[in-house]
UniProtKB/TrEMBL annotation:
One of its GO terms (molecular function) is arginase activity. This is Arginase. The keyword Metal-binding applies. Pfam families: Arginase (PF00491). NCBIfam families: rocF_arginase (TIGR01229). Its cofactor is Mn(2+). Gene3D superfamilies: Ureohydrolase domain. PROSITE patterns: ARGINASE_1, ARGINASE_2. Pathway: Nitrogen metabolism; urea cycle; L-ornithine and urea from L-arginine: step 1/1.
Length: 304
């Protein structure tokens, strides 16, 4: 049976600190995402782009930038992702900035509650995204989605999926982290978030990291991957607004994706923060599509 995949574009940068990720969905399409997935045997429908308010580019109010616009976009994302899951399809959200993970993951969590499934979230990112209005240095909501999902954020975002909190911290495994704000470090520690930072990956290797991140998955587990393209080292992925040196190499990232594919549990995906305005000849989009192909089972050899 071919995997039924739905592509959903969310072209907005309302939660980000730099303009340009609103062009991310189109760059992924130009890089051949749909034919690549079809070549791997997926049955792909491109649902086109969601619509929402433009970016007003205003300073923060009460610790949040563009809260109303972020709520509107996440509400649209929530309904779109939830609708695809209801139809038994695998939604692939094409961002857009990472604040959209609130809408996407709250929809996945809602689906899992209704289906009696366990949820595991792999958050592939250079940043923990666990800020709140009290500790954020910028007010940008793309630095807050994990905290919002865990119940720490503005009421309209925290309640988006109809259940507070949408997720528990023990559902999340963060991989590739290497930039965490000072107040955020304490909060991550207090909440018991499981973080495999780059030092851990340097010391233990990507294989051991992924074995732990994927441990205890079973047929009742829905695996959601939220892939921020700044997870990758900027040497191979320059097209992001918040580059942090020292990320996973191309081969480390491939191993990460291949081990997720080997689990057989991938059921929903976000691809976030691709900024074509900062890219070089769409290089980052092409790398991202290549890695997504590995997530869906592309490998060098036939594996027994």
């Amino acid at each position: 049976m071919p995997i039924p995949v739905s592509l959903i574009g969310a072209p907005t940068d309302v939660g980000a600190g730099a303009r340009g990720v609103s062009m991310g969905p189109e760059a992924l399409r130009v890089a051949g995402l749909q034919p690549t997935l079809e070549g791997l045997g997926c049955e792909v429908i491109d649902r086109g782009n969601l619509s929402g308010p433009p970016n007003p580019w205003q300073p923060p109010v009460d610790g949040y930038r563009h809260l109303d616009e972020v709520v509107a976009w996440n509400s649209a994302v929530h309904e779109a992702v939830y609708g695809e899951l209801q139809q038994g399809r695998l939604p692939v959200l094409l961002g857009g900035d990472h604040c959209l993970g609130i809408g996407s993951i709250s929809a996945v969590a809602r689906h899992c509650r209704e289906q009696g499934k366990k949820l595991r979230i792999l958050w592939l990112d250079a940043h923990a995204d666990f800020n709140t209005s009290l500790i954020t240095p910028s007010g940008n909501l793309h630095g807050m989605p994990v905290a919002c999902l865990c119940g720490h954020g503005p009421e309209p975002l925290v309640r988006l999926g109809g259940h507070v909190p949408a997720i528990q911290p023990n559902m999340v495994r963060q991989i590739g982290i290497r930039s965490v704000d000072e107040g955020e470090k304490r909060f991550v520690h207090e909440m018991g978030l499981e973080v495999f930072d780059m030092r851990y990956i340097d010391e233990m290797g990507m294989r051991h990291t992924m074995e732990l991140a994927l441990a205890m998955l079973d047929e009742r587990t829905h695996l959601h991957v939220s892939f921020d393209v700044d997870f990758l080292d900027p040497e191979i992925a320059p097209g992001v607004g918040t580059t942090v040196r020292g990320g996973p190499t191309y081969r480390e990232a491939q191993l990460c994706m291949e081990m997720i594919a080997d689990s057989g549990r991938l059921a929903s995906l976000d691809v976030m923060e691709l900024n074509p305005a900062l890219d070089v000849r769409n290089q980052t989009a092409e790398v991202a599509v290549d890695l997504i192909a590995s997530l869906f089972g592309k490998s060098t050899l036939m594996r027994r």
